[in-house]
Write a structure and sequence with these properties.
By secondary structure, this protein is mainly α. The chain is built from 5 helices and 2 strands. The protein is globular.
């Protein structure tokens, strides 16, 4: 027996295809837009990070661990763990030292999830820790053309790559969330 798809819905009342009304969306502010390239890139990254968390809000652990389309292992919880893993990878790219080990055993281990509250809590704690560590590793590197690490990757390239990765997977998160409970997002 196939599962009945959830009915599409939104918390937005102004635009029916948005996640939330603009006045309620924490990604939009009345503040001026950022000045300069670095501030703009940092702002975009922060908004995509927040988007991922928003897509996971209000779901039970089993829902967060639900696979999208088997045999794919993609799930919202898997994405959270994946981002913790890639934040660590990005730090490894800019490090001069030995690389830090994979968090989840490498080769898709980040997507092997179990839907229980302890795993969900650990995944979000790990993500926060890894994001903060990557941000700290880049702090003080304000010259976007500066090259870091053994591979001499530029700060700009790393920031743009991070934004691209979050943006791509936030698109996946939109579809995953809609499959779980029908909530649509912009």
């Amino acid at each position: 027996m196939s599962e009945i798809p959830p009915e599409r819905w939104s918390q937005a009342t102004v635009y029916p295809d948005m996640w939330a009304d603009p006045v309620d969306d924490p990604r939009t502010t009345d503040a001026d837009t950022p000045d300069g390239e670095l501030a703009t890139l940092d702002d975009l990254l922060a908004n995509y990070r927040l988007t991922l968390r928003m897509k996971c809000e209000g779901l039970a652990p089993e829902q967060l661990a639900r696979r999208s389309v088997p045999p794919s292992t993609l799930s919202l919880l898997g994405l959270v763990r994946h981002f913790a893993e890639v934040e660590r990878d990005w730090r490894n790219w800019i490090s001069d030292g030995d690389p830090e080990p994979a968090l989840y055993g490498g080769s898709g281990g980040d997507f092997q999830v179990v839907g229980d509250q302890a795993e969900v809590g650990a995944a979000f704690e790990t993500l926060s820790r890894e994001q903060a560590a990557t941000d700290a590793a880049l702090a003080g590197h304000d010259d976007l053309g500066e090259r870091l690490g053994k591979d001499q990757i530029s700060v700009r390239e790393l920031l743009v790559h991070r934004i691209e990765e979050y943006a791509r997977h936030c698109g996946h998160a939109d579809l995953l969330r809609e499959c779980i409970d029908g909530r649509v997002g912009q």
